Amino acid sequence: MAETALKTTNGANTTRGETTRSGFFFTPRVDIFETEEELTLYADVPGVKADDVELRFERGELILQGRVRDRQRPGQVLIQEYDEGDFYRVFQIHESIDNTRIAAECKNGELIVHLPKSEAAKPRQVKVRGE
C-alpha cells in the first residue's frame, strides 16, 4: 500500500518556487511506516524549528520545505563538518490519503507527518453469513 499511496520525486525534476536565500537544499532522509489507519512519515531536519517548516499539499503533492537559520559561532573555524542549508522534498500523494486531515509536528530535529487514510481505503472486516 505504501508504495502506491506515497511516492517521492526528485527535487531536481520538480518545479519549485524562487528562493531569496542563496545556497543549496538538502534532501531530508525519511522513514515511512504504514498502519491500517495512516502512513506516518519521519523526516530528519536538523536545525529546523516548527515555525521554519512549510508543509503544503497542492495538486496531489506534499511539499516539505524547512528553513535552517544561520548559526553564528564565535572564533575561527578549525574543523567544520556540519553543512547548513535548507531542506526540500516532494512526495506524490495517492488519493487513498485523506489530504484534509494531514497533520504534522516538529521536535528535536525530526518532522513527523501523519497521512490518514480515507475511509474507503481502510481495510474492513466483511461478515460472512451462512445458511
Which terms would index this structure?
1 helix, elongated, 4-stranded antiparallel β-sheet, mainly beta, 5-stranded mixed β-sheet
Set out the fold topology.
Elements: H1 2-5, E1 6-9, E2 25-26, E3 30-34, E4 38-44, E5 53-58, E6 61-66, E7 86-93, E8 103-107, E9 110-116
Parallel strand pairs: 2-7
Antiparallel strand pairs: 1-7, 3-4, 4-9, 5-6, 6-7, 8-9
Overall description:
The protein starts with a helix and ends in a 15-residue tail after the last strand. The longest helix is centred in the N-terminal third of the chain and has 4 residues, at 2-5. With 131 residues, it is mainly beta. The model is unreliable at 10-20 (pLDDT under 50). 3% of the residues lie in helices and 38% in strands.
From the spread of the alpha carbons, the general shape counts as: elongated
Helix percentage range: under 10%
User: What percent strand?
Assistant: 35-45%
Contiguous runs where pLDDT drops below 50 for at least 5 residues: 10-20
What composes the largest sheet? 5 strands, mixed
Summary of the model, kept short:
This protein is mainly beta and 131 residues long.
